[in-house]
Fold:
Amino acid sequence: MSFVTERTALEGKFAAWTETRVKYVGRPFLEPAVAYIYPVVIDGAAQEVTFGQPIQRRHVGVISILILDKENKTDGDARIRAIADMLEALFIGANSRVTISTSEYIDFSAPSLSSWSQSSGWQQRTLTIPFTRDHFQ
Structure:
């Protein structure tokens, strides 16, 4: 599995997402006046995890999803937390694996939510989802 295939598969997780707009790396985006998400794939180390044939290569990484919302003095980060809950559902339970082919798949681990911060009228938190991407040759 290539890095291009990985990105396409991971962005596919957001294909049916309608709760907010989605900003993608390197694509034009007009910042909305309301909440939006910004998923970024951060690839880590890769290694061969088998001896002999077939060779299994494992790549590890993290999907970092920045969740942004306008500052709200009434309910604080309640909307961000609700969005995080909906995003988490895309990656756990029955949704914890994306199968590309019989020899290629991506498995997701438990998501975690970062601490709250604010900047320029926006409040934000980041949902991180660790993953492994396996490929057999």
